[in-house]
Amino acid sequence: MNCFSINTQASVSNERGFTLIEILIVVLVIGVLLGVVTTSFTGSSNAVVIEGFAQRMITRVEMARDKAIQQNMEWGMRIENDSYYFMKFNQARGVWSKYSERPFETESLTSDIEMSVRADSYEGSLASQDQLLPHVVFFSSGEVTPFEISINHLAAPDTILSLESDGFMRTALVEGERF
Questions:
Q1: CA–CA distance, 73 with 24 (Å, rounded to integer)
Q2: Contact 146, 138 (CB under 8 A)
Q3: Are the C-beta atoms of residues 50 and 151 closer than 8 Å to each other?
Q4: Which residue from 165, 168, 127, 162 is spatially nearest to 53, judged by alpha carbons?
Q5: pLDDT tens, position by position, 124-177
Q6: β-strand pairing of 95-99 with 75-79
Q7: CB atoms < 10 A from the CB of 119, how many?
Q8: Does the bond joining 134 to the residue before it have cis omega, within 30 degrees of 0?
Q9: C-alpha distances in angstroms, 116 versus 83, 86, 150?
Q10: Nearest 5°: phi and psi at 152?
């Protein structure tokens, strides 16, 4: 008798592995979850871009308002299709001129941001007929033309922010609808 006997029969294993279908289902679920997460991050990045742009614009608007008071001179802001810029009114010559020193240099819009402005008209003779006028005027008294600027990201049309001022209060950022 040999104490060491070798079993020559193959033992049947009770261990079970994953089937191909189970692995494919897990991969499919992971893929769907990644797609949902990626889509939500992309949407929020567009919102972050718009909010950052709007916050920069508010800061510059309030700085221009303060400069108008400090210098006892009317300032303005004009919004074009692809940019916005600040202007100063030269009272001696009776003309508006573009002001582009830091931090008031022209800011160009990226191709995926769209802006529109709605402002109250102001009375008085501020320029000749052929001169471009600012959409928003910052008066040396501290008042400002009541305005609403709508900003939206073309890739996220549901995300619309508005910069608003009633003429006396500081500029506020609100979520709004397109006008």
A1: 70
A2: no
A3: yes
A4: 162
A5: 444 455 678 999 999 999 999 999 999 988 887 777 899 999 999 999 999 876
A6: unpaired
A7: 19
A8: no
A9: 11, 16, 5
A10: -140, 155
* Residue 164 neighbours by CB distance under 10 Å: 16
Predicted confidence at residue 67, as pLDDT, reads 95
Please, which pLDDT band fits residue 11 given cuts at 50, 70 and 90? Answer: low
Can you give the residue ranges of every domain in the chain? 22-175
Please state, as a whole number, how many other Cβ atoms lie within 10 Å of the Cβ of residue 4: 4
Task: Please report the beta strands in 46-119, taking only residues with DSSP state E, as ranges in sequence order.
Answer: 75-79, 83-90, 95-99, 107-108, 113-119
Local structure of 147: helix, strand or coil: strand
Rounded CA-CA distance 175/153 in Å is 13
Reported as type and span, the H/E element at residue 176 is none
pTM score, two decimals? 0.69
Fold of 22-175: minor pseudopilin epsh fold (3.55.40)
Q: How many CB atoms lie within 10 A of CB 65?
A: 21
**pLDDT over threshold 70, residue 44:** no
> Strands of 113-119's sheet, edge to edge?
113-119, 147-153, 156-165, 172-175
Phi, psi of 117 (to 5 degrees): -125, 145
Tokens, residue 26: 């897990």
User: Cβ of 19: how many Cβ atoms within 10 Å?
Assistant: 9
